[in-house]
Amino acid sequence: LSAVFPLATATSAIFDPFQTLLLLPTLFIPCKYFIHDFEKNQQLTTPEWITLAFSLFLGTAAKGLNGIIVPTFAIGLHLIFVLIGQPNFRKRAIQFALKFFAFAFVPASALCFLYFLLLDEKIGRAFTREFFLVHHFGRSTEAMETHGGSIFYHPLVAFFGGGFLSAYLLLTASKKKMAYLTEGFAFTYFLAFMIVFGFSATKLPHYTWPIWPALAVLGGILTLRTTPPSNSTSSSRALKFLFSLPVLVGGIVFLVLALNPISLIISQLPSPSAKIILSQFRGFPWPAQILLWLGFATCLLYQMKRDFFISKPVYTAIAGLFTTFVFSVSGMPAAVDLINRPLMELAEIASTRYLKPGDCIRFTNTHSPTISLALGHVYFHNRCEPDQATHLITPEWKLNQCKEHGFEILEQRSYFYLCGRK
């Protein structure tokens, strides 16, 4: 569900939630193997290997090479933990590693190669070069469009973004032990994404989206494998307050959104692009405001009845599910209005009024194909080099690029502009 709900809001611009869904077998199958099969020396079945290979391929096809690299790194990392922690199982770990390489990684890599070869043929070499050199290696070594941060960026996103789940996981894990080598793959999966994207120069919250199902699985394992936490003490009360900070912050966010002080929020934002985008926001309609108030009330109730929620994981899960639902449903119309609709309108105008056969249009805010594919317009596919473009679609904060190309403004929708030669 952590991957399903954001589909309603985020896929107007990004594919990360969809990639998360496609990568779920790379989390579930190894979890099942280490918990149930590893110590019994049982092997994965042929359908499981096929599912794992296709999951790696589809996750890569949806977003990029992180779809095959990070899950493979997670499996390799956990096998290293096994080799260190249980040397007696060294032979089994090596056998699994070799089978994974032969039956999952190699077939998935072959499918990925054929897929990107097809894209290169259909879209063009400019797309291929930019997609790999810029948006894989470039983003790893240089913070693009000011989207940078420290090594603590993604752990903080996970801590505060997890909300009720973060509070439950930390409070439960602080009191109980688990057999990490057999039950801890979900955390290794989480750790792999933290490591890979922690050292990437470009950082955005959605880069590590696949951690949410992993943390949810970890919560389920902790609930099933351990007894409920013991009665609180003075020290545990301090931990409860600290680990419940994500819920407290979430409640404050719901309250601020419900009060709708957009002008105050805009004045405090350091990012010029964020100020421009939010200046187009006209506030939430009354049904969304009611939901936001209910989200705030849920977080407030948790703070008042924290011990009850901690002792009843099912109610914590329901509260987290409800607040995620509130945030997604309330944000969906805003995401469509601010991102999707103006781009769709400009694409329609460009294709019907301005573009001729052989013309090339580029979207200057991001050269990634994800927004192109999400919107479903071939004109956004950036099929040419920047200096060969006949038209540009650019946000207001990059409007100077129109002048650099010698273009004039042809159309405007919200904070997006269509530029070209009249």
Describe this structure as you would to a colleague.
This protein is mainly α. The chain has 21 helices and four strands. The chain has helices at residues 7-10, 16-22, 24-37, 46-63, 66-85, 90-123, 125-141, 153-161, 164-173, 180-183, 185-198, 211-225, 234-243, 245-259, 262-268, 272-279, 286-304, 306-311, 313-354, 370-375, 400-404, and strands at 361-363, 391-395, 408-413, 416-420. Strands 1-2-4-3 form a four-stranded mixed sheet. The protein is flat, with a radius of gyration of 24 Å.
Structure classification: mainly alpha
pLDDT below 50 for ≥5 consecutive residues: which ranges?
1-12, 366-380
Average predicted confidence as pLDDT: 81
Beta percentage is: under 5%
- Distinct helical segment count: 21
Largest sheet: 4 strands, mixed
User: Strand tally, please?
Assistant: 4
The topology string of helices and strands comes to HHHHHHHHHHHHHHHHHHHEHEHEE
Taking all Cα atoms into account, the compactness measure Rg is 24 Å
> Alpha-carbon distance between the termini?
48 Å
Strand arrangement in the largest pleated sheet: 1-2-4-3
**DSSP helix fraction:** 55-70%
Which geometry do the CA atoms define? flat
